[in-house]
Amino acid sequence: MALWLCVVFVICAYESRISAQQSYTLSSRTIYKYNLLTGQQDSLTTVELNPPLADIALSTLGELFGISDNVGFYLPELLRIDPMTGETEVIYVLPDSVRINGMTTRSDDVLYMLGRTGDLWTYDLVSNVAESLGKTPYRFDGDMTWYKGELYYAYHDYDTRMNNVVRIHLDDLMREDVVISRRMPRGISGITSISASCDSLEIYAFDFIDSVYRVDIERREIIGHGRYMYSANGAASTGEFFGSIAPVSVDDVRYTEELCDLEDAELSVTASGGAGDLSYSINGGASYASDAEFADLSAGEYIVVVSDTAGCTDRDTVIIPRIGVVEIDSVAIRPATCGENNAVIEILADGTGVTYSLDGQIFQSSNTYSNLAGGERRVYLQSDEGCIDSALIDIPVIDRPMITSVDTRPRSCHGLDGAVWVDALGDGPLMYSTDGVSYQGSSELVGLDSGAVTVYVQDQWGCTMSDVVTITQYALPQISDSIVVATSCGEDNGVIDIEATGQGDLLYVLDDTLMSDVGRYGQLAARLYQLVITDSLGCSIGIDIYIEPSQAAELDLLSREDVTCGDRSGSLQVVGTGGVAPYEYSMDGVSYQAESTYTDLSAGGYTVYLQDAQGCEDSLDVLIDSLAHVLIDSVMVTEASCGRAGSVRVHYDSPSAVTALLDGQLVDDLAMIDSLERGAYELILVDSSGCRDTSIYSITGSEELSVSVSAVIQDICELGEGQVLLDLETAGIEGLLVNGERQQVSSVLDRLTAGDYLIEVMNEQGCSWDTTLTITTTAAPRISRIDRVQPTDCSLEDGQITVIVDDQVQLAAIWIDGQRTMGSIIDGLREGVYQVTIEDTAGCEVEREVRLDQQDCPVYIPNVFSPNGDGVNDRWAIYVSPEAGIRGLSIQVYDRWGSLIYDQRNALTGALGWDGKYKGQVVPLGVYVYVLRYEGLVGDVVLSGDVTVVR
Fold it and tell me: Rounded to two decimals, what is the model's pTM?
């Protein structure tokens, strides 16, 4: 009992332990921790074991057990292992002939062990009892695990080179049941299972090199899952025992029907599998009970859920029917109408053998009751089993229809077109009539004569009501006012304006063509017209109307005089006829006068207007021409530029020879007037008729550009520091060229090396200036060569640098890394990079970078590098001498807190090193610790030190 409570406790924590499940792998003497759900190796320190183990397993409480690999002098011992220290405790020794190589744990803390000779053993961790279950047909190295309550064994068949996964039938151990068989490059040496949820149990396998696989029992596949850094000959998981538990299963659901809606149905559930005691729900898991029997249930749908103590579930859905129940579907009711007891009801229901009752009286087989008064009644329905249903009904009472109002339309001039519209209340649809015999659905009754009319209304039950109304008769349209306006000015501008009264909106039609809703017509010619007026009922009257004629006024030209010399000497005279005198005249159509003569006119077109006494108008267009005279067409000006004088060319038209005056001075040649300074000029041309034309123009332009060289500064030491200083006003300068290349406009030209220079300056007016200058320089010292001697080994500071300069250099000093030396030979140096500087007596310097390398070192490890992407010293590159015979290189780099940030194993000698990045990002500046391991000619070597990351 104590054992079962312990297992239940562990299983109850199932959901909380899923995310924390870990797996362990065994490599003979070492146990490693590995997270199968994330595919990442844990950083847990490994445990070194003695003796070597064939396989490992974990109890439900997380205790670690192993079986010794009884090869050589070791016995097949079952051991309890401390995973933190590696210490072991022997808890059982199996017979010497049994060579166990596979282990797993059942949910009740019973270990299962399978040997290389096919022996299957168990060991109860609670009772400490071992038991041999017998022989299996499997004689191979492998491992075991559980999956959905079944025991599976994975092994590598060295004869066929196949990796096999088999199901071990505990009730028939010699039965061979191969689930998966796959040829793979390496043999499976370890297998375990792990749960991500109740519905997700997965098996993972390890080979004896470095690979992890996922084993899919359902699809019979072995799928690659990732790489593992160590070899494995066994595996176990903290939740592996969950695989020994069969899934929860709803095997059967039985029920009885509900009778007469009495909630007497029953339901029972049969289930299997799961961990611990099962609990049962019939409401989809909202609540559970420990009993699988449910009573006092109503008919309907039930979602049956079975759950174990681990929270894993299975479900099924059942529908419990109801029997013997009767139900009134509906009651058809014909109301009591016309104030009589003539109602009828019909009870409608499903089923056969049912009987009916009204108000609880004797039940009968007929479902119809007639000749009933209105009001509340109760109807009953009874089945053969005695189940009863009832319904309260209300029989309506329908009164006769009631006429609320009647509207009439009078008879018009067209004959029998009177009409009535009836408003009535009643149980519709209502019907209408004027004779009580022929009824219609429309409440509009038409085709009636004037006089008394009886109207009838009938509801849907045939009940009627009547009323008497009187229909009157409409009058024809009547003219109430008329205005007729004659034409004027001989135009079609007569007007007819008629006002009339009649029924509704009136329509006016003039000469059968012009229709309007008002009786006003304009712009009419003088003649006889016919007007017809029609009301909204179509009744009409007609009248004849005559419009009187009129005469137009006209304007004629009597005389016209053209202008000379382009002045205002033109004139014209007009006269008016027709219309009605007196006449008035205008040149703008606004201001009128009695005088018809106009003088002092310039050349151009004019419009003269006439207006008679009645306001009638006419107009006339008159052109006043201009006689030929001298006219300047254009004056072409050439501006003064950069100190040169300007000029003009004159183009003109004239009917005769002209005299030309420029600022009062006679000009002989108008084709070219030159030597003109900047300023304004007046030009006058006079022809033989005395007509003249004048043009005023100006000569503008730019002054000469003024630039000079104020100083020339020569270059020294070939540094390119020569300068030219210009006396230059930069405002208005458009461009500055040095040897044909455009420069920024400035009075200082600097950074000039030795050579000849053409300097050109242009301003915005196009004026230019140029000069040619020569820049000289003094020579910089030259280093002919630098000899260097490398250190003899990794520890000596015997490097040497010899500096040799050109013979013509007058040497002043030699500097190395900012320290002045005593001569050209510099010794006592260790490996590294040095900055050598040469200075001559003129103060000129030259620099050279020199690198001294080590030699005779099997491994060279730099202590600083700068991963800043500038292409110089970006990588921490470790040099390995090809003659050193080194192999198995690996390097690990740690930050200041001891976290591993770089790990490279089994690297090729030419590829060993680090780019200064962790997770794709360059690490911060600072000092980092490294550990270098390799196998050399004298054995395994471990080197450690630090490297500095700089920028």
Answer: 0.40
